Amino acid sequence: MKMQSKLQCWRSLKFPVIGIRSNAYFISRIHAAMTLHRNSQKRIYLDEAIYFVTFNTRGGLPNFKEEIFCQLFVDNLKICKQLKQFELYAFNLLYNHAHLLLKPGRKYNVSKIIQNLKMNTSRNINKVMGYETHEGANTYSRLHVGKYRKLFIKKYGRNTQLFPQFRWPASLSL
Predict the structure, then answer these.
(1) Distance between CA 14 and CA 138 in Å, rounded?
(2) Which residues, 6+ apart, have CB-to-CB distance to 55 below 8 Å?
(3) Using CA atoms, how far apart are residues 50 and 80, in angstroms rounded to an integer?
């Protein structure tokens, strides 16, 4: 009974909504769109679908209490939106996690979009804090982090011990 009422609710929507890494009920074309990723995790990609995505900071640290990091995340999101050509309907950035409601374009799927956003955000936040990237890492950034670094130094000095290095949790889905 519960499942039927949820399915009827989902069917009443004018567009398919997919929950990433959740127990959402999927409406149509599921078997045709399923793909396997690392560790055999199933991924569903639907054309014209709107995805609700949630991701956390590593260890649940409240990194986004710092306004500089929030602005950096928002600026990275704007650049990612331009480059990856997706529609962003809403986002919510909390102290230790973020929510996005987005519709990927034709060229990039939701996994590639989130991978790009997380990679660039973590690299840029670490640059602002003064952490060096490891050898072989992609150090190129379209966002000029110099102004954020100056604000960070003005507020906290050059002491990077106040904040641990920023990381997202290891993900099996990207």
Answers:
(1) 40
(2) 97, 98, 114, 118, 168, 169, 171
(3) 17
Q: What is the DSSP letter of 143?
A: S
Q: Are 116 and 105 in contact (CB under 8 A)?
A: no
Tokens 């950096």, residue located? 72
Distinct helix (H) and strand (E) counts, the chain:
5, 6
Nearest-10 crossing angle of helices 67-84, 110-129: 140
| 172 CB burial (10 A radius; 0-12, 13-18, 19+) | exposed
> One-letter amino acid identity for 23?
N
Question: In the chain, helix, strand, coil percent, each to 5?
Answer: 45, 15, 40
- Please tell me the pTM assigned to this model: 0.70
Please, are residues 50 and 17 in contact by the beta-carbon 8 Å criterion? Answer: yes
Closest CA to 93 of 110, 72, 108, 124: 72
For CA atoms 154, 157, 163, 169, the dihedral sign is positive
9-31 per-position pLDDT tens digit: 333 344 444 444 433 333 333 43
